[in-house]
Amino acid sequence: MSLSPPYNQLSYYTFGTPNGIKPALLLEELGLKYDSHSVNIMKNEQKEQWFLDINPNGRIPALKDGDLRVFESGAIMLYVADLYDKEKKFTYEHGSELYYEMISWLMFQMGGLGPMQGQANHFRLMAPVYDEYGMKRYIDETKRLISVLEIRLSKADWLAGDKYTIADMASWPWVKGAGSVEIDLSEYPGVEKWIKRIAERPATEKAKAACGAMPDDQMKEMMAGMKAKMDARKETKKDEL
């Protein structure tokens, strides 16, 4: 007879991106023992067959717990919270009003903030052409989504209820990097304080390290270089197709 979860044999496959950091925040906050495996997306390792056997979508992150696999960052966070956060430190009782408030904010990030800011990052930093329409569309939508967070965080410390939960962990790695697409976070004081509040937690730095995330100053320097390269395409009218 096979064992039932939790298996307590956690292997986390990740990289230093916002989605890669999200579940690591929970793993570190819970103090769980896990093996962290870097999947270098710059070398397309996520498309290799060994990883596709874990996540058929070929995207980081992914989790294995014994023989059980979980992919998609939100699903991983729900799995870890359900199976390992027995004291409900970072979640709420399943079926409660606050549980569904938390899930609503989690899905807000999964279906809105992450995809939209990801597109903003693509058009502003990485697209092979200078596309002013694409930049404006997705940067404006990211601003709108951050303003939704501001409505809540201008009145409360956390997104769901009165404690730090997986809802906050899901949005934080994305929002903190919004300056890379010239979004001025000082326009959102509640969000700005929330970003700082989470950054100061000891588990946050551990999670970033476990994912191999760049130091913030190094990341800013890299992003500045990418923006300058994109701006040069506008000036020279030369694209890289």
Automatic annotation (TrEMBL):
Residues 95-226 form the GST C-terminal domain. It comes from the Eukaryota. Residues 7-88 form the GST N-terminal domain. PANTHER family: GLUTATHIONE S-TRANSFERASE GSTA, GLUTATHIONE S-TRANSFERASE-RELATED. Belongs to the GST superfamily. This is Glutathione S-transferase. It comes from Exophiala sideris.
